[in-house]
Structure formats: C-alpha cells, structure tokens
Amino acid sequence: MTGVTRTTRAPWRIWWQQWPDWVHRASTAWALAYAGFGTTGALSGTPLLHLGGAPGPPALGWGVAAVGALAVLACGAVVRYGPRPALRVLLWVVCVLAGAAAFGLLMDVVTLVFGQGVDSGVAAAHHVLAAAGALLLAATARSGRRPSAVAAVQAPSVGSRRVQLAACAGTVAFLPYAAMKLIWASGGTFAGMTGEEMLAVSQRNGASGIWLSLESWGLDGTVLLAALGVFLLWGLVRPWGQAFPRWTLWLRGRRVPRWLPLAPAVLGAATLAPYGMFGVGYAALSTAGVVEMRRGDFHSSRDALLVAWIGMVAFALYGVALTAAARSYWLRTRSASADAR
Q: Are residues 122 and 236 in the same domain?
C-alpha cells in the first residue's frame, strides 16, 4: 500500500520555480530600461560612471545605451526564437558588459552600511541596474537548460582540498591588513602614519558618525567587514554553510536558499578579485620603478607603496579564493538529476 503525501506550495515559490517562463520578458524589459537610462544620461550630460572617484565623461552614457540596445536585440530574439546557441553567446557577452558596469556596487553598499553617502546617486543607481541586468541575462542564457527529470538535492558536503587551501590563503591574506588597520584604530603608528592622523584623514574624507565611533573604540569598520567576508568564505566551503541551519526562525527549519550566500559571494568576488589584481600589478610596476606611486595622505610614496601591497594582496587573494569557493558551492549544492524511472 502506497501513501501519497500532498504538499501545498506558496504562490511565490511556484512563481519562482517557473522562472524560465518569465525571465526572457523580464530581461527584455530591463534592456529597454537600461538603454533608456544610458540615453537619458548622455543627452542630459549626467555622468553615469565614476572613474577613480571622479565623474567620467557624460558621453560614456552612449556606451551604456549601446549595451542596452544590444541586450534588447538579444532578449527579443530569445523571446521569438528561443535560447539558441548563438544567442546564448551574445547574452553572455552582454552579461559580462553589464557585470563590468556594476563594478563599484560593493563599495556603495559598504558606504551605506556605515551611514556614509555615495559619491553619486546616479552612479550608484547605475551599479544596481547593471547588476540586476547581469543576473537576468545570465538566467536568460541558462533558461533553456531545464532538468529533464526529478531533482534530488545533494546532501551537505565539503569543498575539495584545493578549494579549502584557497580559503586558507584568502583568510591568511587578511591578517596583515587587519593588523595594520587595528594598529591605527588603537592609536599606534604604521607606515609613518599615526592613529590620530588616520582619524583626521577619515574626518576630512567625510566619514560617518558610525565609522568614527568605531575608530574611537579601537575598532575599524573594514576589519569587521573582513571578518564577515572570512565567515562567508568558509560558509561556502564547509558543510555548515550548506545547512546554515535552523538559526533563523523565519526559515521555519529549512535550509538557507542557495542564492542567499551566493549573491554576496558573487558580488564580492566580481569586485575584489579584479580590483586587487589590478592593484597588485600597479604596485609591482611601482616597485620596479616603471610608474610612481601617488603619496596621497601618506608622508612618502614608499609608505603608500607598503600600504598598497598589504591591501591589494589581501583583496586579490581573498577575491580569487571567494571565486573558487562560490563555484565549489554552486556545484556542490545544485540539484542532481535523477532518473525519472
């Protein structure tokens, strides 16, 4: 005798599971909005991109409009003809362009968390819009690959040895960075700069009251963020990250959805890995004497170079480790197709 158990699914859950049916049109709507956003910025002379903290040329808005127009063509063709291989390639190209345009979103989130204003509200809105488009385009590119059988969720597992070694490297890379920041926060001197001088620099750069309060308590906001980042990194590698279990009542004992740790992981990896690797390359060129390191708020270029090496190596190694951990988590937690028979 076989018993049949009937389960009631929430409407939003049914709607989410049917994402291949609506994501094409959602991507098309985004592409139209993105093209309009770029055109409006170019015609009004409003900078949509910031380069090194300074507003970029308003003419770059035409590039944003061109990316949006290309996305309109690709998404419209997918709606009409389905996700064919050539269209998938085009979608991934536009997805990469949108992801590059979203660079800086993590910095915007960090400044808002600590109560500081962003450099430009328009540029921050562009980062959010571009990031949403990158997600929609990636989902559209993968929409035709539905599992042909019943899906069975894999049990929590551990990342491979290489991924765990990468996580160790990403964790250790933050130790000199955290030590440097805590020395300044506790009033000590490092790279020729005292804690009082660094506090004055933070005040001059418009640091928020929350940030300055943490500094007065001997804490540094970036060190706290680094600790959260390391927690996220190991959550993607260890089994407890898959089961993250049952700590939050609103989940009612269910496992955390995959996208919850993956979303900040992808955002952090896409920001910190290229930023850190570019910074390491620039520091190497400066060490070799090819380019000159800007002194900035430090007393000498040599001091600025030392701080740059510590920070950029930390960001680069952590960004690469987070990329490997996110990929491992994605592969280990995805549904395994079971034979329908």
A: no
Same domain for 186 and 293, yes or no, is yes
Query: pLDDT tens digits, residue range 40-52?
Result: 999 998 888 876 6
Query: Residues 6 or more apart from 282 whose CB is under 8 A from it?
Result: 291, 293, 308, 312
Look up the pTM and report it. Answer: 0.74
Whether residue 181 contacts residue 225, with contact meaning beta carbons closer than 8 Å, is answered with no
Q: How many CB atoms lie within 10 A of CB 234?
A: 17
Final residue in a domain of this structure, among 146, 169, 203: 146
In a domain, 236, yes or no: yes
State pLDDT tens for residues 23-40: 888 889 999 999 999 999
Q: For residue 68, how many other CB atoms are within 10 A of its CB? A: 25
pLDDT digits (tens, 9 = 90+) for 223-270: 888 899 999 999 898 876 555 444 443 444 445 567 778 888 888 888
Tokens linked to 13 = 């859950």
Paired tokens of 135: 């997600």
The answer to whether residue 11 sits within a structural domain is no
pLDDT in tens, 309-341: 999 999 999 999 999 999 998 888 775 433 333
Domain enclosing residue 283, as ranges = 152-337
H or E stretch covering 152: strand 151-153
Running DSSP on this structure, what letter comes out for residue 149? S
Domain count, the chain: 2
Is 13 within the bounds of a domain? no
Q: Are 36 and 134 within one domain? A: yes
Which whole-number Å values give the CA distances from 106 to 128, 131, 178, 265, 332, in the listed order?
10, 11, 19, 11, 26
- Answer yes or no: is 132 within a domain: yes
What CA–CA distance (Å, rounded) separates 241 from 157? 9
CB atoms near residue 274 (< 10 Å): 15
- Range scoring the smallest mean pLDDT among 41-45, 172-176, 202-206, 239-243: 239-243
The angle subtended at Cα 172 by Cα 171 and Cα 173, nearest 5°, is 90
The owner of tokens 């898959």 is 242
